[in-house]
Amino acid sequence: MADKAQLQEAIKTQGEVVRKLKSEKASKEQIDEEVAKLLQLKAQLGGDEGKHVFVLKTAKGTRDYNPKQMAIREKVFSIIISCFKRHGAETIDTPVFELKETLTGKYGEDSKLIYDLKDQGGELLSLRYDLTVPFARYLALNKITNIKRYHIAKVYRRDNPAMTRGRYREFYQCDFDIAGQYDAMIPDAECLKIVYEILNELDLGDFRIKVNDRRILDGMFAVCGVPDEKFRTICSTVDKLDKMAWEDVKKEMVNEKGLSEDVADRIGEYVSMQGGQDLAERLLQDPKLSQNKQAFAGLTDMKLLFSYLELFQVTDKVVFDLSLARGLDYYTGVIYEAILSQTIPASVSTPAEQNGADEAGVSVGSVAGGGRYDGLVGMFDPKGRKVPCVGVSIGIERIFSIMEQKAETSSEKVRTTETQVLVASAQKNLLEERLKLTSQLWNAGIKAEVLYKKNPKLLSQLQHCEETGIPLVAILGEQELKDGVVKLRNVASREEVDVPRADLVDEIKKRTL
Amino acid sequence: MQLKAQLGGDEGKHVFVLKTAKGTRDYNPKQMAIREKVFSIIISCFKRHGAETIDTPVFELKETLTGKYGEDSKLIYDLKDQGGELLSLRYDLTVPFARYLALNKITNIKRYHIAKVYRRDNPAMTRGRYREFYQCDFDIAGQYDAMIPDAECLKIVYEILNELDLGDFRIKVNDRRILDGMFAVCGVPDEKFRTICSTVDKLDKMAWEDVKKEMVNEKGLSEDVADRIGEYVSMQGGQDLAERLLQDPKLSQNKQAFAGLTDMKLLFSYLELFQVTDKTSSEKVRTTETQVLVASAQKNLLEERLKLTSQLWNAGIKAEVLYKKNPKLLSQLQHCEETGIPLVAILGEQELKDGVVKLRNVASREEVDVPRADLVDEIKKRTL
């Protein structure tokens, strides 16, 4: 181990090396290599006697979850998972990194946002970018043709921080998908029912679920006169209608994307339409649209979907909206997006774009998105076997944000533990008795704590209860021990009652959930 | 492979190599069900003891992780330098914990953390070892009266192993100070303490003769010293052993050993106050929790099936329905058997007229007609 003076000398020298390379505009690889050496030397400087100097920060775009945030997170997951289970879904988990080649190819220009692992002589690896590609890989690898699964896990995107202020690079996704060949629109309807149930139970206020269909959009573009090769680019312009007014969207179509004003106006007429099953029926009467094969299939299925949604009693919040486009790269049929009616101000940190299966077209207030994607798994299967899929991604980071804000402004405290009772004593030399009672409570399944102090003051024990929200305190004293009772005190009201030892467990259970 | 992949690149069709990265694996639904059960038992125990939980990012700044692990540094997964900070995947949960405490200036916390960690183990040396695997840590940080938190940690291990029903187990305890004191009184030179320690550590895998050989031949101890160590390390016991060693003239004179033995005595006194009761349980492994399948034997009843299923969901019942307009009764029953769904609610024209549902127990095949209004309660009664 080099001594301090030698190290400092080495750091000085290495610093010169780095400065020289930078001024000579040497290659990036060279500079980075020398910088890494410099940092390593600096780290060793604090390394005497094994003392390690920590740089006290998390990586850019990542954050720790403190216990309060974890309590909120646990509550949200519990509600969501409970809904998935009510619908008979299983769950799987996949590794945090995949073979680089599994991930690339699918994301096109987003490839630069993928975190690669360093080539350390083995396979080339990258951190997963979403949960959809791992799902498709899992299905193909295990030759699975039918599964109803949910998957809640973190994904990783190297977003450019200048462009996307406040966006996390490590964030949760919560996906639910039904894979398999089934009779039309029933699984699609169940996905929407699930979104409805989850948003209701999370108590986020009023919401709407917009639905549309890729085939209806494509058919609509065709009858309006959009050239085939412009479908996708016009689609992403239409997608901006949730953020921009029609005039500006039309401007982009005409000026930037080269559509004639006529064509743009025709599109404008359609995309202003919203409704329910009635709109689907009306459009099926539209002579132009109904002649288009794609649109006809999409509208027929939309009608069928609404009939199922009525049986599932969710039509009060579902709207067939022709302006819904989403980033349509792998969607092949129905698409949907759930939006909270009460839009939260921009001060809430997590932008909407991180929610849903893709980046494009998710407006502020969006909390879920998805659709049908029948071609993805076939891309992974060596024989190209198709496994049709429909699914939804719940915008869980956005929901965390909203719940965290709610908790901050609410007077109710978020507890980080579930302890029911603190075992305490006002007198000295009662540690043994406290430990014995605490152990008995644990054995009976009661959530209990005891201070790690031989002779704590009653005040500090009560303070601990108040700080952490423990509702009850079981107080021992010489007299109580003689009488075979425990003083059970309600921390908030300060009401006390003597409870016989034998009845203590039941009494605690009665008074706490 | 890369060349082949390019070949399949026409028309956007991407040929994938269908495998997970070396040393990693998917968890299928059965494995997840087992995992969930294990986590549930463990977390329930942690919560019973008033622990909070935290989570940290999967990667840290490379400099946060290096320096701590010494020679294990080569086992750390680095992220590629893509022009930003140098990052590495966490190797354990302890260093992130220390970083979290320091960053947030926290002096007291009782926390658990269950998450995956990453080690680039050399596959030739460590066959079958995963590179991505779960760690489940529980730690108490803070200045407290001696040995009480230490005792609670052991109580937690005891409770968890009992509840997991893994059979009989033993928890061995010792103390770094007792070990160091013991080496000192046996005559081990100070600078050899750590290396002799790792040799003694092999006693759980090797016989004493071989351990002694290593100490003498490889580590340069004299046979006398090795024999003296041998006498001590063969000792096992409870609080009585700690008391006996406190009477040992040589050991009790050693400051370190004395402190360690005194604390060991105190620890055992607390462990006596913390007794535990046994629990056992065993259950069939299902991957879903569905209580009832809504089915029909006749055709054209999809609407009715969907309506009933929706009513059950609204009442909080875990229900499924096949995605088929006119499924055969046999396939619906088969689905129940394969996935462990205990009940099936069968609809038919006559039942609809009479306002009842045929509720069948899948295992026993017993059926009974239940009025629509009572169905939810009947299902709740028959399933947990």
UniProtKB/TrEMBL annotation, chain A:
Instruction: Enumerate the CDD domains for this protein.
Output: HisRS-like_core, HisRS_anticodon, HisRS_RNA
User: A Pfam family matched by this chain, by name?
Assistant: HGTP_anticodon
Instruction: Give the record's GO biological process terms.
Output: histidyl-tRNA aminoacylation; mitochondrial translation
Could you tell me the keywords of this UniProt record? Aminoacyl-tRNA synthetase, ATP-binding, Coiled coil, Cytoplasm, Ligase, Nucleotide-binding, Protein biosynthesis
Q: GO molecular function, one example?
A: histidine-tRNA ligase activity
Query: Record's superkingdom?
Result: Eukaryota
Q: InterPro entries from the entry? A: aa-tRNA-synth_II, aa-tRNA-synth_II/BPL/LPL, Anticodon-bd, Anticodon-bd_dom_sf, His-tRNA-ligase, HisRS-like_core, HisRS/HisZ, HisRS_anticodon
EC code(s) of this entry: 6.1.1.21
Q: Which GO terms describe its cellular component?
A: cytosol; mitochondrion
* Annotated ranges, domain WHEP-TRS: 3-59
Report the residue ranges that make up the Aminoacyl-transfer RNA synthetases class-II family profile domain in this protein: 61-403
Its recorded reaction(s) are: tRNA(His) + L-histidine + ATP = L-histidyl-tRNA(His) + AMP + diphosphate + H(+)
Q: Does the keyword section mention Isomerase?
A: no
Residue spans making up a coiled coil are: 4-41
Which PROSITE patterns does this chain map to?
Answer: AA_TRNA_LIGASE_II, WHEP_TRS_1, WHEP_TRS_2
The record's section on NCBIfam families has: hisS
Family per record: Belongs to the class-II aminoacyl-tRNA synthetase family.
Q: What is this protein called?
A: histidine--tRNA ligase
What organism does the UniProt record list as the source?
Cyprinus carpio
From TrEMBL, chain B:
Q: Which residues form the signal peptide?
A: none
Q: Where is the Aminoacyl-transfer RNA synthetases class-II family profile domain?
A: 23-384
Q: Which Pfam families match?
A: HGTP_anticodon, tRNA-synt_His
GO molecular-function terms, A-Z: ATP binding; histidine-tRNA ligase activity; identical protein binding; RNA binding
Q: Binding residues for L-histidine, per the UniProt record? A: 92-94, 119, 135, 139
**Entry keywords, A to Z:** Aminoacyl-tRNA synthetase, ATP-binding, Ligase, Nucleotide-binding, Protein biosynthesis
InterPro entries given in the database record: aa-tRNA-synth_II, aa-tRNA-synth_II/BPL/LPL, Anticodon-bd, Anticodon-bd_dom_sf, HisRS-like_core, HisRS/HisZ, HisRS_anticodon
In the UniProt record, which is one GO cellular component term?
Answer: cytosol
Per the record, what are the reactions this protein catalyses?
A: tRNA(His) + L-histidine + ATP = L-histidyl-tRNA(His) + AMP + diphosphate + H(+)
SUPFAM superfamilies from the xrefs?
Class II aaRS ABD-related, Class II aaRS and biotin synthetases
Enzyme Commission number(s): 6.1.1.21
For this protein, the record's Gene3D superfamilies field holds: Anticodon-binding domain, Bira Bifunctional Protein, Domain 2
Provide the GO biological process annotations. Answer: histidyl-tRNA aminoacylation; mitochondrial translation
Name the family the entry cites. Belongs to the class-II aminoacyl-tRNA synthetase family.
Q: What protein name does the entry list?
A: histidine--tRNA ligase
